[in-house]
Design a protein that fits this description.
124 residues, mainly alpha, 2 domains, 83% helix, extended
Length: 124
Amino acid sequence: MKHLSQITIIAAVSFLGELLHYFIPLPIPGSIYGLVIMFLLLLSGIVKVKHVKDVGDWLLTLMPIMFVAPIVGIMGSFTECSKFIIPIIITATVSTLIVMIVTGTVSQALISLRDKKDGDRDVK
């Protein structure tokens, strides 16, 4: 029964996201609206993590399976995509490096701020 209520919460939030996508004329997918709604519900405490944790963990374990169909589709059209392989590799490499650099820099800045804040507390 616990899992049914967790699935119901996640499905209701997803449905609400799809409704927002239908009624708001912006090029934002309904799943993004749903993620933002769930984030706000969790942040506000209206929905507790324990209310969705088990089913959320289960859905995360299923996520790799969701990428099988697109990969098979790409493999089926490899001959058409092969002429773009070098630009794809370059773009993927450069964008990955940029994400790694930005993530590392932001993480270091946040850790420094936290350490500085903790140091201020120790002085008081």
